[in-house]
Write a structure and sequence with these properties.
This protein has one domain: Maf protein (Alpha-Beta Complex), CATH 3.90.950.10. 30% of the residues lie in helices and 25% in strands. The protein is an alpha/beta fold. Strands 1, 2, 3, 4, 5, 6 and 7 form a 7-stranded mixed β-sheet that branches. Strand 1, helix 1 and strand 2 form a beta-alpha-beta unit. The protein contains 6 helices and 7 strands, in the order E-H-E-H-E-E-H-E-E-H-E-H-H.
Length: 198
Amino acid sequence: MHKNRKPMKTIILASASPRRSEILAGAGIGFCTVPSDYEEILDHAIKPHLLAKRLSLQKAKAVAGRYKNALIIAADTFIVFRGNLLGKPHTPKEARRMLTMLNGKSHSVITGYTVFDTKTNKKIIRSMQSKVWLKKMTPQEIKAYVATEEPLDKAGAYAIQGCGAAIVKKIEGDYLNVVGLPLFDLMASLRRFGVKVF
């Protein structure tokens, strides 16, 4: 006689990011996407790693209240350059400003993520950091890249998984962390909640 198996807990990605969805789906994990309506505010008074973790937790909480027995995954990614926190530019002018600032230099990409079990209230909250060097671009190259509109909703005004790969000279650390979800570290956390990977 087979023992009754407990039904698999629903996994919810609290994000509207297609990139995070692609990363999680690529790992073979079944999940639903429920965008969080929490509005991130980059508070420079808080240390970057702590801020990334806090933002991911707030995103998770904004969705968690709707579910009694689910595993919520939420994340937040931003860039740190010489003490400045850079999020998404939203306008071409702001994108050009960010890329000019980062031009030919290195910066850190920090992603905070939260895994939240709404039934037990158990949480794992972590942050990961990668270092990225951008190539030296001419003002014309920056203008041409911004004109593609790819930078407008990306932290730091570039997408390493898109056309922006052409302006990335070198990376140190987890590539997927730069895209927006540090999969290797996240998988280890999900195992602690009983999620079977592969």
